[in-house]
Amino acid sequence: MNLISSFSQNLFFIRHGFIAEEYRKVFYGQLDVPLSEEGKIKSLKVVDELSNYSIKAIFSSPLQRALFPAKILSERKKIPLIIKEELKEINYGIWTGRPREEIYKKPLFWERFKDDTLAPPEGESIRDLRKRAKSFWEGLKDLEEGLYVIFTHGGFIRALLCELLNLESCFLFTF
Asked: Would you call 28 exposed, middle or buried from its count of C-beta atoms within 10 A (0-12, 13-18, 19+)?
């Protein structure tokens, strides 16, 4: 089944802005980290641009870095904001909050994680993330025609692209 051809909606997927500096070198995943000041400013610019469009509804991850612009746009346009757990970033389990360099020093585990079958303890695998992204995508088919804005995370968007383009999960780390 072609996951793309059956859509009559326009969908804008938007990754959240820059996060606070102290979290940039750790696996933050589903940790609810704030946007940096620059991230907030750029998010507001995105909201200003999107305000020019006729939007049916807004979907957002519940994490504050995605929810910040989603709430503002929803209030400004007086349109529904639908918060979806499925739009969260990947769950890194016990890796959450740990320095990236610490995990990269375990190349065998890191390589297996990138191949999509292995999950960090208490976390989810890339395959799990892809399934979650595909499930969200399939749930959009029943929406009426129009423009929908989806505020989410880079990992989610890349996983969805891999799913839609039928790419191996290793490509998730190349764009």
From this structure: buried
Q: What is the CATH number of domain 9-173?
A: 3.40.50.1240
Was 130 annotated as part of a binding site?
A: no
- Strand arrangement of the beta sheet that strand 9-15 belongs to: 9-15, 146-152, 55-60, 81-83
127-159 confidence digits (pLDDT tens) = 999 999 999 999 998 899 999 999 999 999 999
Report how far residue 34's alpha carbon sits from residue 40's, in angstroms, rounded to the nearest whole number.
9
Inform me whether the pLDDT recorded for 58 exceeds 60.
yes
Of 21, 37, 86, 89, which residue is the catalytic one?
89
Active site residue 145: no
Domain ranges of the chain: 9-173
Report, as an integer, the average pLDDT of 80-86. Answer: 98
- Burial (Cβ within 10 Å: 0-12, 13-18, ≥19) of residue 33: buried
16 catalytic per annotation: yes
- The pLDDT score that the predictor gives to residue 103 is 82
